[in-house]
Amino acid sequence: MAKITLLFLTVVLIYFILTLLSTESAPEDALVSQIPGFTDNFPSKHFSGYVTIDENHGKKLYYYFVLSEGNPTKDPVVLWLNGGPGCSSFDGFVYEHGPFNFEMGETKGSLPKLHLNPYSWSKVSNIIYLDSPAGVGFSYSGNKSDYITGDLKTASDSHTFLLKWFELYPEFLSNPFFICGESYAGVYVPTLAYEVMKGINAGEKPVLNFKGYIVGNGVTDEEFDGNALVPFAYGMGLISQDLFEEVTSECQGNYYNPATDNCENKLAKVDKTIESLNIYNILEPCYHGTEILEMTTGNTKLPLSFRKLGETERPLPVRKRMFGRAWPLRAPVRDGIVPTWPQLLQSNNVPCTDDEVATSWLNNEAVRKAIHAEQGSVAGSWELCTGRILFRHDAGSMIKYHKNLTSKGYRALIFSGDHDMCVPYTGSEAWTRSVGYKIVDEWRPWTSNGQVAGFLQEYENNLTFLTIKGSGHTVPEYKPREALDFYSRWLMGKTI
């Protein structure tokens, strides 16, 4: 009896040790213990570092991993991807749904101050911020030929990253896994999701517990995205009924690829009418230089309603944080080379934007050391959106990917800030409807904090389209509370 008892206790002890090891097996050298600018304790553990996806080339992708503040052993693991192509996922970390809110430094050149973000997506999920492809953010390669890439190669490389990442963090393999992103990640997300699905079907190890994906204001299809702007501009009261009727008559619904000179001329008139608006959010000011910025932020004689434009529940006004990726009006992503903003403008400046906080913080040597990012001499200077990659759109329309994935049982949430003119909601609403799935939850409002926060329509095969009222291109930046609400409800499988 004593031997049986001893054997039982031994088994229990071994099980306890294995369980402890499985929950604490994250690489110790990846632990982030402190960050310059933040003096309090982290509400959850943070890890960061590099995963080498090609030993021969020295191709390394950088990640920053934030554990859930809830139950990290059970909560979903979410991979976050910003768009571009060429934009770092620290865009999402710094300006959208990361664990911190950033406050501008007191003096020019001083580091920003960091405060806890009450609407961080790490409240309900473990989240991996990935710089992809190589050449973006802190990710780099020893072979510069790797900076010539495209949709399919990026998806393949990101899949390789995931397999290697889960080998480093095997304790999270049983957690539900989701892929999420915005803007050009409307291409990154479904193409990567397809690679993950193929890998699971082929029995690749480790086996990911992939459940679905989320796309916010994402580019999807040349025709639907290209035809979205004119109806959006008319519906928002940006162009007159006369002009709308003229352009509709001349173009016959084909606004992205004009077939006649008359159509081209009418579209040029549309472009001219709306050219001074902030493409990322038509409600927000568009700053064209420092003089206008100083005038609008410092002139107390301006109407209160104007001075408060861009304010949210976060410390930096949106107008000082806004960044993203947009093509010139009516220029949807087509097959072939997709220029990055620095390449497009022959500079590093993007209209209506200011990324000073992120740039100053992430190019600080102490910050880079603390978050295990290589110094500039190795990985290069950090830029929110880089011009050092040459990127080719070679995956075509994303609709076929969405049909394939949702028909196989993977859940999909497609959301749109309804005042974004970069990727207007009209295009996303149209393509989700075009899939042809039966409507199971007819167009209705959804609420946050007791208020209507937007509208949604749900289709069979777990495809949901959702709008966020009054939000621009980067929804968690403009509407942090509402974003956390629909994100957490959807992840948990609750009704939004």
From TrEMBL:
Q: Which residues form a coiled coil?
A: none
Q: Which GO terms describe its molecular function?
A: acyltransferase activity, transferring groups other than amino-acyl groups; serine-type carboxypeptidase activity
**Where is the protein situated, by its record's location annotation?**
Secreted
Primary residence? secreted
For this protein, the Enzyme Commission number is 3.4.16.-
Query: What range does the record give for the signal peptide?
Result: 1-25
Q: Which UniProt keywords apply?
A: Carboxypeptidase, Disulfide bond, Glycoprotein, Hydrolase, Protease, Secreted, Signal
Q: What is this protein called?
A: Carboxypeptidase
